[in-house]
Specification:
180 residues; mainly alpha; Four Helix Bundle (Hemerythrin (Met), subunit A); two-stranded antiparallel ribbon
Amino acid sequence: MVTDWRSHFIRQTDYQLWANQVMFDSLARLQPEALQAHEGLFFGSIHHTVDHMLVVLRLWAARLRGENPTADFRRVSEAQWGELKRQLQHELRQFRHWLEHQSEANFYRMVRYTRTGGEVHHAVMADLLTHVMTHFAHHRGQVSAVATRLGAPAAEMDFLYFVRDMERAAREAQQQAQQQ
């Protein structure tokens, strides 16, 4: 059970890592060229949509650290699919480590950031983190819809599947420990 914002967002980041892997496993069933094909997604292809997830993570992580980054959503930042998957998961793990070092009070602080169009905005850090987490789910849903239309297995990425998977893993680890 989560009792504070830090624990909540660490768990949410763990879920993002898990759900991304479930999505990647499903996408592995497609031909590599299917990942690059324009499929009517907002960012065109599956590859560009997943790349957008990486760019957004980098953008918000920098904003939350107090930096003023820029991002170009029109271009793909990581052209190699394998490296894109690795980078997204790696940077999510780094983000998780950053979250571990945040004080509980920090989740209530007001963050000033400049949108890519130049507008200055302010929002509470917990709200921004919620946005990042739901943004990932939004784009994974888009990718999943296209992937299943192309013949990939339907990826079960809902949060409760993550919870059940973590509970199962804990039971298995406990059983192994008892057998030793």
